[in-house]
Amino acid sequence: MRWKGLIFLAVIIAIGVVLSLFFLDKWVESGLEKAGSAAVGAKVEIDGLDLDVAGLSIEWQRLQVTDPNSTMQNVLETGRTAFQMDVAALLRKKTVIREMTLADVRTGTPRETDGAIPKKPKKEKKKSDKPDVFDKTRSKLTAEIQNLPVMDFDPARLKKSLNLDSLIVMAELSMPQKLDSSKADVLNTSKSWETFFREFQPEEDLQKIRITVQQINPKAIKTIPELVTALDKLQSANKTLRMLQDTVKARQKQFKIDFNRTGSYIQSVDDWYKADYANVLAKAKLPDLSVKNIGLMLFGGTVVHRVNQTLATVQTIRKYMPKKSDKTEKAKPERMKGQTIHYANRHGYPEFLIETAHLSGQTGSTDDVPGLILQGEANGINSQPWVYGRPTEVNLQGQRGDGRSIQLSAMLDHVEAIAKDRFELRMDRVSLNNVSIQESAYLPSKIQKGVAAIQAVAVFEGDQFDITLNVTASNLGFDFSSMNTSNQFIGIVRDVIQNLNTVTLNVRITGEGDDLTMRMDSNLDDRVSKELKAMGSKALQDAQNKVRARLDQIKREKMAEVDKLYKEKRAEYQKKIDTYAEQVEAQRVAAEAKIDLIKKDIDSKKKAEENKLKDKAGDLIDGLF
Amino acid sequence: MIFLKLLSKFIKVLRSGASPNQIAWGFALGTIPGLTPLACLHNLIVLLLIIIFKINLAAATMALALFSLIAWIFDPFFHSLGFYILVRISTLQGAWTNLYNAPIAPLSLFNNTVVMGSLAVALILVLPNYFWFKWFVRRYRETWNAKIDKWKIVKIMKGSKLVKVYTKIKGMEA
């Protein structure tokens, strides 16, 4: 026994315990702050942390999580937070919190100091990190909004200048190029047919066959061997005729293919024309006055931004609350990390669990603007839902005397192999004063005033989702003064909003991955479209007619060449191939008629010979007896 | 320099009066933290064993350093072996499930494939390492020590100015 060593170890442990008594709170606080800051990418600060090792409870008075995108405000701030860990679970390497209190939770609170931290170089995304269904949905939604037509409408500018020549150069028209390609294809096809007709010369063969057929006169042939020789000649000629007929038929088929293809170009011209027309209109920034998706154009950016945020949240939730997996599959873990294998859990402890969290907070970011007082509960927040066996539920509500209310509920059911999530938000008489809106080219970035009723339901089942959002906003006020005044579309939107008491927006987005259906209906659609038509239809009509006239001219010139060539060649080759077909058929009929006659002659002559032989045989037998 | 220091200490240990048993147990037990991830509960037990019993610490440290250097090469093998032991051997499933649900045991990270695979290899190597190293220490002391001292390279190195200066400085430091 090494006593010195044991004493040394005991002393070390004793010093550790004493130091922990004095400094453990600070160490844990600092450790949590560092880990949190590294995860968030901005300062995470904890004040007044108190760790009770014996009771396994932690409490802090304030937590501030800096918004990494705006480091002078917190993305989350909490007041007193307290929780106690389950000892039995902790001894089994599970973090189980039976009850947690999170008081005075707020978002967007201002910070006294800058919460920025030196940025670390971003880790390169691993090749294995393939975009999942949520990434695809977000990309698709963003693309849908980016691809909306641009409404920059100024009738005066339209009247003044519409330089068609430069527009046509800019638009890189596809119709003339495609018509040139069509012409080239017709010419190439013609060349191959010319070659065929040069090489295919059936006249000589047909002439020989004609002579052979004419020369053979079955009535003049007396003997069976002569008839057989004539039959062989006719059958050989018939074989040649069948070969010629097969060739002609194959070429007739090829003719159909070739000239249907080249003919299809002419039928496609209208589509090319339409595409070029739309392209020139886009380059000229000529709006489509029959535009239906006004709601999508006005509010699409903001809605998609919010939906993308929701999708990112669900994606994160699903990462930390994975669905049930049936079998333990061998993974390829990071080097020296290994794979953790889980077995049947007899105690029902997930790796991490907050059984009940009592939440309270408010929507206002400061005490001056307190907003709605919220309170509620979150039950069953855990990292292994199939072990816990119950879905996670969150319910928050708040109400004020003036009728304002908010209700948020979420149900995250990841117990089975198909995860089901449902989020519901209902807000009544919500103030829209100074609310920021995003990515709308036709509305200012902030709503000055207004109230709204919002109802949103998002349901996710496996990879499928269904999001509905209904907004009814009234008394809306925007400050359009900073917007582009030459764009009269903005002016129309402003007038319509000012003259409407209520603006409604009904959104429904459904789908799976990049297979999406998005609808945004607004009561602005018809009004704005009507105003737009009333104001700009004449100027726009003139401009559009100019574009059409130029395109018509290009179409006429190019089309005439292609059409003429196509029709000429088609008629010429059709005539030739049909003539060959008729000639071959006529000879074949004549040859087959003679073949039939000779066959009949041979049969009758055979029978006559047989009868003769029978008679002779009868005479011989009679002579014997 | 740390490695040289460790090597010199190790050679000193080989030449010291410590028993071959103590040195061999040190080397054998040092294999365990050397091959397995260091921050595991079983390594605390190994450390306690080394401290409680008169096991040579320098030999254990040498083995720890030596096996730590090569352990990463075998990491994929440890992962596969660990997965086989933890998942594929059906007769052990009951034991692992019991251990998984028992207190303290999950803290040992036994259900991690690399920990299990490397620990299995380390435990298999403990006894062979013990016997092999015991033989090595005896052989070194009986035969190789004198022979190595006679090696030209050793003489040259011992006689070189550089080594003398180094030894002198080391002496001054002490």
Verbal overview:
The complex is a heterodimer of chains A (625) and B (174). By secondary structure, chain A is of the alpha+beta class. Chain A has a domain of 146 residues. Chain A contains twelve helices and 18 strands. In chain A, helix 3 runs antiparallel to helix 9, helix 5 crosses helix 8 and helix 7 runs antiparallel to helix 8. The longest helix of chain A is centred in the C-terminal third of the chain and has 101 residues. The mean pLDDT of chain A is 84. Chain B contains nine helices and no strands. The mean pLDDT of chain B is 85. Classes of the chains: A alpha+beta (625), B mainly alpha (174). Chains A and B meet through helix 1 of A and helix 3, helix 5, helix 6 and helix 7 of B.
Quick overview of this protein structure:
The complex is a heterodimer of chains A (625) and B (174). Chain A is an alpha+beta fold.
Oligomer: heterodimer
Q: What ranges of chain A have pLDDT less than 50 throughout 5 or more consecutive residues? A: none
* H/E element sequence of chain B: HHHHHHHHH
What characteristic shape of chain B results from the CA principal axes? elongated
Structural class of chain A comes to alpha+beta
Largest sheet report of chain B: none
Total beta strand runs of chain A: 18
